[in-house]
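We close this part of the discussion by returning to an individual protein. Part of our work consisted of pairing the sequence of a single chain with a tokenised description of its backbone. The amino acid sequence and the backbone structure tokens for this protein are reproduced below.
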Amino acid sequence: MKVVHICATDAGGAGKAAYRLHKGLVLNGVDSCLLVAGKTTRDDSVKVIPEINPSVPGYCLNPDVYRSEKMMQQWNKWFTKMSSYSGRDPGLEIFTDVSSVDVDFGMLMEVREADIVNFHWMSGLLNFNKISSQFRDKNIVWTLHDMNPITGGCHYAEECRNFHYECGKCPQIASGNPKDDSNENWKSKLNAYRKMNISFVTPSNWLRNEALKSSLAGNNSVSVIANGFPMDVFRNYDKKVLRKAAGISENSKVILFGVDSFTTRKGFSFLRDALELLAEKVKDNVTLLIFGNIPDGIKLPEAFTVLNAGRITDEKALAGVYNIADVLVIPSLDDNLPNVVPESLACGTPVVGFNSGGIPDMIEHKRNGYLAERKNYHDLAEGIYWVLFEADAEFLKTESLRIARDRFAAEKQAKEYMMLYEKILERKVQNSKSYSKSEKKKNKGSNVLVSAVVSVFNSEKFIRGCLDDLLGQTLYEKGELEIVLVNTGSEENEDAIIREYKSKHPDIKYIKTDERETIYQAWNRGVKASSGKFITNANTDDRHRRDALEVLSGHLDRNEDVDLVYSDLYVTKIENETFESRTVAGKLERPPYNPEHFFIACLMGPQPMWRKSVHEKIGYFDESLMSAADYEFWCRMAFVNNSKMLHIPEFLGLYYYNQNGIEMGNRPLSEKESDIIRNKYKMLLNDNKTQYNSSFKNLSKTKSKIGNVMNSFNEAPGRNSEIILAESLIESDRLNEAVDILMHLMQTDPGNVDAMNDLAVISIMAGDYEAAADFIERVIRIDPMNDVALDNMNCLSSLIDEKMAQLKNDSFQNTAEGFENYQTGNETQKPKGPYGDMIEKAEAFIESEDLTSARKVLETILLMEEGNLDALNDLSVIEIMEKNYQAAAELLERVIRKEPDNEVATENLLILQRELDKL
């Protein structure tokens, strides 16, 4: 087996991980090489990709070290482009588009000869317009070292969830445009991935979950294989000897942390705040040991001794640093599987970090470290203190060593990759061998398990895709799927297409009537003509995962007490997409079965499967209904037949959001019939339950103002079923029940903008304008152009206009006094935090009207702590005094985004408003 790894470099976190995997495979007898653009290792098995594409196939270069000028130019392009995005937060990670140095991998012999091509950190190397042809039928394994391969350009999405559906309105490039650069990048990747055979690997469970949620990788295989580390290098050494050599007391408590960058995601500000808290509790005998790139001027607690080891490239020297420490602290907010954690554990040094990203894959709380609540620096400080002064140090050391050996040994990683490679190659052989066998199994029809009933009416543009979808089902290949087409007086030429397919697949059943019949009459004809044990309705414009019908029928087969099964669905707005090539516009995630949900809405979805025997007991679809007979039949199953139904929590189907379809094309009729059905079955059950009495009073005026928002409920496709249920409850004034559902959803999906929008509506209805504003702001942080949030904002604004006007009249005089006091330094409260002295100095300059000096001091603070609220507020005062009102507004906006209730910013805003009113 020949494996070729490709990575931009063999250095850095991803490069080291790729190199270690490559070497682990070599030690296990695999013919492996690593291709890079930049080389540092002086290893002959690491080869350099040529700067100029060869005109004939050839092997890569083999210098000792190499720095790619083209890649350096590519990085410069990225940084130049990032600086062009007006308003982009400088604390964000790099954003890399799909531009590249355009390597022709098809001309590299290492790639041509490989059985497996393993991608690693690939930004700048791949031409997405060409890679499908360059790698042709190659088996691609892509090890994700960050999120970039599954997004439109960002390497960590942070709070954004657009990559679940379609990138656009990207917060990392400060864009409100749905067709921005991130969207173009996303499309390029989607088009390339569709044509390739990619199996993704993630080092952490967190990144696997993110990949599975993504629209780019969610349909692919995603495995978790932790990174491996050389345990002969990263091991336990004699701490006393190492400390003596470093001049550190044996009795000192040594806190180790690495500094690579000061991006927001790395969380350095939380570490600094945690150390400040710790310094209040522990006054001496603590050493802060730092490695990496830390700039001058970063203020750390003066009570602690600070030692800077600088950048360490030698792994044995790095292992020595880990062994000197009593604890390693990693404050990253979202990280994959950062190398420093397993390296530290392998040396017997416990780790404290936040319970987020891939960190929980490595730290077991209070066994080999401490997991602090995300972004809670108080808890981070508590964790450091616990490890240093309260925990059993020997137990932590023993568990750290054990967990490192069990999970992160290089040999373990290599063997797991070898098993994956072999599985992929074996599957490829089996697929080629089984093709002819599956052809023989087709069309026999002797053991039909499932009948797919298709109503054919004015669907000429969909019927080919529908038939290809059904004929491609694994169940059809086994001879267990029957396709029943019912053409009831269609005005289009589906007939010719169907006959073409029947000539190749004579087992297709085709029923045709001259007179136009409803879809439910067609379904009834199809059900009666079917041979299957189970029935499913296959709409001509919907599609399925290749094994969908086999999965659904399998659950019915195994659960004899279940009469109907249903799954989750993706939503698309593009005609004739396949499940594999879908462009996801939303997701229909169904709830577990509860018959009472039928009194709210039909939540089964458009692609259920049920037992044919049910029709023998309770009849067929009600042909008097034009739009909701399927809903009525499911209710009949639930309340007349007492059928048990089962939700399958997998995405098995693709639903086309067709505005001209039966339900969407005549929504008033659909709603009318649905109301009739609900009332019918409530009466049938003699449901005399008292109508829910809302505890919210006087809602009529408020509801009239939020009418536009409530009218938009359920209009968009792909809404979570819990959202649909909650919005139905809101419309019925059952607000407490809606809150329960939405808050539960927020626990599992804290970034769900639909839930936050609905909670804003409820807060407005309840008169809690502060809570409403908070929910609206949280949505706008994620999606600045969110239409529902903007409607909510307008509604809230109109409700509180009078109140705000009165507030301004009452407060302007007091605010003016506050402004005067602020400038003259008469306020008694001193600024808090590590830069308090500098803030006081700046305010003294402001008082003396030396605004240039004040500005320099404040800008220095912001270089060291970008989000310092005192500095931002003081700068806004300077801008107001210098009549730079736009700059002042932008500074105050930054404060309020971080701390909406900041009193100083609120006062400064009112001052700014007063100054503007004078113009």
User: Anything to note?
Assistant: DSSP finds 34 helices and 22 strands in the chain. Residues 450-684 form a domain with the Spore Coat Polysaccharide Biosynthesis Protein SpsA; Chain A fold (CATH 3.90.550.10). The chain has a mean pLDDT of 84.
